[in-house]
Design a protein that fits this description.
Blueprint (H helix, E strand, L loop, with lengths): L1 H17 L6 H4 E8 L9 H15 L4 E10 L2 E11 L13 E13 L2 E9 L1 H8 L5 H16 L2
Parallel strand pairs: 1-5
Antiparallel strand pairs: 2-3, 3-4, 4-5
Length: 156
């Protein structure tokens, strides 16, 4: 069972996300699949929600490429640690294309029922993505700038 579920997760990453084959969602997800990801819009439940999610990110990053770094399974649960890269060439929830290359990482914990994904818990570096796109300042650079400003004002 665990090996079959790992194969389904590999197929999810390769076919749906890397190739953009949206029709595969019906084969991979239960009709009431629930996605838990506070960094992404809520698209509802089921395969259609995942087609919408994949379309959002693949439109913004047409060359999107996810790589599974680790894949661990036990019983009806599979955990995938992954990395992702792509060029921002399309709209992303109102963020105009920047042309910037981004690289992020994340973890997905998937629960299966009868050989299909029934629930997914996803945590990924959304802040890092926004910083790489230039829509949120780099925190380290911001702290350095504030320290420099404080130093220059105290020497006046």
């Amino acid at each position: 069972m665990s090996e079959q579920n790992k194969a389904i997760v590999r197929r999810l990453f390769e076919e749906l996300w890397n190739k953009g084959n949206l029709s595969v969602a019906d084969q991979l997800f239960t009709p009431n699949y629930t996605h838990h990801d506070s960094s992404s819009p809520d698209f509802g439940h089921g395969p259609e929600s995942e087609r919408k999610r994949a379309t959002l990110y693949r439109t913004a990053f047409p060359d999107l490429r996810l790589t599974i770094e680790d894949l661990i399974a036990e019983g009806d649960t599979v955990m995938a640690r992954w990395s992702c890269h792509g060029n921002h060439k399309g709209d992303l929830n109102g963020i105009a294309p920047t042309g910037k290359q981004v690289t992020i990482s994340g973890i997905t914990v998937a629960r299966f029922v009868n050989g299909k994904l029934s629930e997914g818990f996803v945590n990924w570096d959304a802040l890092g993505l926004m910083q790489q796109l230039g829509v949120v300042p780099q925190l380290a650079n911001q702290a350095k700038a504030q320290a420099a400003a404080a130093t220059s004002s105290s020497t006046r």
